[in-house]
Amino acid sequence: MSLLYRYVDQPFLLSKMSQLAREELLHFEQVVALMESRGVAYQHLTASRYAEGLRRHLRSNDPERLIDVLIIGALIEARSCERFACLIPYLDEELAKFYRTLVKSEGRHFEDYLLLARQQTQNSIDERIAFCSA
């Protein structure tokens, strides 16, 4: 919710982030349904060390902080794409089909995050992307 109050002057950012959140929730619901249909119990997982490590690099003031949040979001989506794509050859047809849709969505999310980050500054964000990816 803090996004709504802090960036009320950026309707495109709010709209894109809202779309992304809805799509991620849909994916979560789809995963829960698949797990249930396969008799797999849901277990809460803690946040990944990867994401936690990336968040340590967040700068403290906007617009730099927002740029970092968006770049980190992009990197997390890119990593999801890579991991899902690696798994597809080992999955049954139903799961492989689902994972292919996830790869496509996560790739789109990666692009959206970078687009939003680039809109926050007149400067290149390439150095910051390289820093956060290292």
UniProtKB/TrEMBL annotation:
<dbReference type="InterPro" id="IPR010386">
    <property type="entry name" value="tRNA-Hydrxlase_MiaE"/>
</dbReference>
<dbReference type="GO" id="GO:0045301">
    <property type="term" value="F:tRNA 2-(methylsulfanyl)-N(6)-isopentenyladenosine(37) hydroxylase activity"/>
</dbReference>
<protein>
    <recommendedName>
        <fullName>tRNA-(Ms[2]io[6]A)-hydroxylase</fullName>
    </recommendedName>
</protein>
<dbReference type="GO" id="GO:0006400">
    <property type="term" value="P:tRNA modification"/>
</dbReference>
<dbReference type="Pfam" id="PF06175">
    <property type="entry name" value="MiaE"/>
</dbReference>
<dbReference type="InterPro" id="IPR012347">
    <property type="entry name" value="Ferritin-like"/>
</dbReference>
<dbReference type="InterPro" id="IPR009078">
    <property type="entry name" value="Ferritin-like_SF"/>
</dbReference>
